[in-house]
Design goal:
globular, four-stranded mixed beta sheet, 10 strands, 54% helix, four-stranded antiparallel beta sheet, 15% strand, alpha+beta, binds acetoacetyl-coenzyme A
Length: 387
């Protein structure tokens, strides 16, 4: 039916499915409970090529396209959304930015180890007082007199993978008076003086993916670690988020698919009032509506993936398609996991089954990489051209 999905795509999808079932699904509940970071499986995913799917082979990646990326993301997230979060940050928020805006030297030094999964990458835009309004940040980077280093000060928050990240793409102000045109991007090495991590956030869901604040105290960043030109940071951040939002949409789809599959199996097995619960019209209606929303999400994700691939060839943007996919898939994941718990009754509410984890994990997809409200704003602005 989808003839853009080639044999090669099916192979990476199958490889991700096999790995997710064999190595991730059995440990997902335990890591969710402990909140430990699953470094061993993440390294194995790197060896299988899942940490830099769209990165060309010469930079350590799998050299595939966005369709391959979304197919693999869905399979990993069906088993565990936390692994998917770490995978999406490495692939889209870190590798995509380095690939598109990095110099050859930056790619060799920083992209290769992250794309191969030997190192963990992160992306830092949000601050305690700047979230959706990303252009109003308070952190600063000031070029020293000799013009060799930027001195960075300030505090960034909600940085996914920060507690384990070796390298972080940081967005901070170099010319605050210019607001969003005064933002620049930097590649930060986390083992250098002046960089510290705040406490790990205690989270509702995706508990095995570590998140923390990061603090810069006179951190010296060499000029050659600036990503893109001075003042180009906001556009880099937004361009990278467009790619990231397709990854989060795929994560949401994986969670929703897992909840739907569990619900179908339960409806065929569980009996009440002397019949299978799947024979009751109220359960049938839920399953039918869940399936429609899951498949509609998949279509929007394919549309966004194809739009991104076309934009890579022509240089255009695919912001609206990415936001539509993320908005619809994340709200679907929240709705489908809610219905799935209802179908399972008490068992859905119990930690004996993964449904409550799916429900908790689904919520973040409506929040990070742009809330549902921000996605609606991006879509409406694209439609009208108004601000
Ligand atoms: N691609 C390229 N350029 C873009 C762009 C895009 N997607 N979106 C905006 N721009 C450009 C605009 O063209 C404009 O350029 P000019 O000045 O040259 O005209 C410039 O950026 C400013 O654009 P806006 O005036 O539209 O900016 P705004 O301040 O109104 O903000 C916004 C727009 C869509 C609300 C944006 O701020 C946004 O997406 N906010 C949400 C931020 C977000 O997603 N945060 C989550 C971060 S990461 C995370 O969740 C944690 C993690 O680790 C996973």
């Amino acid at each position: 039916m989808f003839d853009f999905i080639t044999e090669e795509h099916k192979m990476i999808q199958q490889a991700a499915r096999d790995f997710a079932r064999a190595a991730i699904a059995p440990i997902a509940a335990e890591y969710d409970e402990s909140g430990d970071f699953p470094l061993r499986t993440i390294r194995e995913m790197g060896q299988l090529g899942f940490m830099g799917i769209e990165v060309p082979e010469e930079y350590g990646g799998a050299g595939m396209d966005t369709v391959a990326y979304v197919l693999a993301m869905v399979e990993i997230c069906k088993a565990d959304a936390s692994h998917g979060t770490i995978m999406s940050v490495n692939n889209s928020l870190f590798a995509h930015g380095l690939m598109k805006f990095g110099t050859e030297e930056q790619k060799q030094k920083y992209l290769v180890p992250v794309a191969t999964g030997q190192k963990i990458g992160a992306y830092s835009l949000t601050e305690p007082m700047s979230g959706s309004d990303a252009g109003t940040m308070k952190s600063r980077a000031v070029l020293n007199e000799a013009g060799t280093h930027y001195v960075i000060n300030g505090r960034k928050s909600w940085v996914t993978s920060a507690p384990y990240a070796d390298t972080i793409v940081l967005f901070t102000m170099t010319q605050p008076e210019k607001t969003h045109k005064g933002v620049s991007a930097f590649i930060i090495e986390t083992d250098k003086p002046g960089f510290t991590r705040g406490k790990k956030e205690p989270k509702l869901g995706i508990r095995a993916s570590a998140t923390s604040e990061i603090i810069f105290d006179n951190y010296e960043c060499p000029v050659e670690n600036r990503l893109g030109a001075e003042g180009e940071g906001f556009k880099i951040a937004m361009t990278v988020l467009d790619a990231g939002r397709i990854g989060i949409a795929s994560q949401a789809l994986g969670i929703a698919e897992a909840a739907l599959e569990a619900s179908i199996a339960y409806a065929k097995e569980r009996e009440a009032f002397g019949q299978k619960i799947g024979e009751f019209q109220m359960i049938q209606q839920k399953l039918a509506d869940m399936k429609c929303r899951v498949d509609a999400s998949r279509l929007l994700i394919y549309q966004a993936a194809l739009a991104k691939m076309a934009a890579t060839r022509t240089g255009g943007r695919y912001s609206m398609e990415a936001s539509m996919a993320k908005l619809f898939a994340s709200e679907t994941a929240m709705w489908v996991t809610t219905q799935a718990i209802q179908i399972h009754g008490g068992m859905g509410y119990s930690k004996e089954m993964p449904l409550e984890r799916y429900f908790r994990d689904a919520k973040i997809t409506e929040i990070y990489e742009g809330t549902s409200e921000i996605q609606r704003m991006v879509i409406a602005r694209s439609l009208t051209g108004l601000r």
